[in-house]
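Design job #97: recover the sequence.
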C-alpha cells in the first residue's frame, strides 16, 4: 500500500476502524498528507502510561479535551468519544497507541470493552447527522491504530494490518 492510499484510507469513515501497524517507525508518517481541506486530529498515546483503566480514561479524556462532566466509565467514555465533534469539530480523528502490549495490562479484562467501544464509535461517527438540529454534524473518520505489540486474540477480534 503506498502512502497516498494510506492517507486516503484513514481520511474516510468506512470500516474497519481498528488496525495494527508498525508505529514505532511510522507514527510520524501518518500525520502527513491527509488533505489540506480536512481538519485532522492525530493523538498519539504511550500505552505504558495507560496500564490501568483509570490511567487510560484520564489520558484520553485529557488529550481529547473531554468536557468536565466526563465520568471515568465505559458508557460515559463512549458517549464523549461519539460526541467529539461538538468540541473538536474534526473531520478525521486518529488515535495511535504505541507500546500497546502495555495497554490496560493491569486491567486486561477491559480490553474487549475498549475495542467494542472503538468499533461502535467508529460506526456512529461514520454516519452524518442532518436533522436540522444543533447536534447535526458531517461524518467523521475515526480510526484507532495499535502498534504490533497488541495481542488481537486477547481482545476477541482480529485487527487488520495497516501497511505503511
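Job complete. Output follows.
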Amino acid at each position: 500500500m503506498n502512502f497516498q492510499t494510506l492517507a486516503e484510507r484513514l481520511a474516510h469513515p468506512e470500516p474497519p476502524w481498528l488496525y495494527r501497524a508498525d508505529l514505532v517507525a511510522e507514527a510520524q508518517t501518518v500525520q502527513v498528507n491527509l488533505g489540506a481541506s480536512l481538519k485532522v486530529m492525530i493523538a498519539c498515546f504511550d500505552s505504558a502510561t495507560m496500564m490501568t483503566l483509570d490511567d487510560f480514561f484520564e489520558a484520553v479524556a485529557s488529550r481529547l479535551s473531554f468536557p468536565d462532566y466526563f465520568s471515568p466509565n465505559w458508557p460515559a467514555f463512549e458517549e464523549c468519544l461519539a460526541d467529539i465533534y461538538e468540541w473538536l469539530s474534526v473531520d478525521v480523528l486518529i488515535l495511535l497507541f504505541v507500546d500497546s502490549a502495555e495497554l490496560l495490562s493491569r486491567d486486561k479484562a477491559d480490553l474487549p470493552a475498549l475495542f467494542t467501544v472503538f468499533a461502535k464509535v467508529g460506526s456512529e461517527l461514520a454516519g452524518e447527522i442532518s436533522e436540522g438540529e444543533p447536534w447535526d454534524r458531517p461524518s467523521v473518520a475515526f480510526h484507532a491504530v495499535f502498534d504490533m505489540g497488541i495481542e488481537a486474540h486477547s481482545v476477541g477480534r482480529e485487527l487488520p494490518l495497516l501497511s505503511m
